[in-house]
Specification:
By secondary structure, the protein is of the alpha+beta class. The protein is built from two helices and five strands, in the order βαββαββ.
């Protein structure tokens, strides 16, 4: 089990990113959240098996209308109390 903070940059706002992240994360049994940032990037906190997090990143990169130019990843402490994936506003 791992928890990562993933910062996606590129054409990632106004293209359904948060909805797709929510859908993909739930399909991969990930918990965490997704939020648009003021600088135009989108930050995801994703928790689960590392192979599922990697699959999440790959799936987001291949989504229609989304153009990821860079991905920054930081490892975080696992949150044992987290039970779902949420869209934050």
């Amino acid at each position: 089990m791992e928890r990562l903070k993933i910062n996606f940059k590129g054409r990632v706002q106004g293209v359904g990113f948060r909805f797709q992240a929510f859908r993909i994360a739930n399909n991969l049994n990930l918990t965490g959240n997704v939020k648009n940032m003021y600088d135009g990037s989108v930050v995801v906190h994703a928790q689960g098996k590392r192979r599922n997090i990697d699959a999440f990143i790959d799936a987001i990169k291949n989504e229609r209308f989304i153009r990821v130019e860079s991905v920054d990843i930081m490892k975080l402490e696992v949150d044992d109390n987290e039970k779902s994936f949420e869209i934050l506003y």
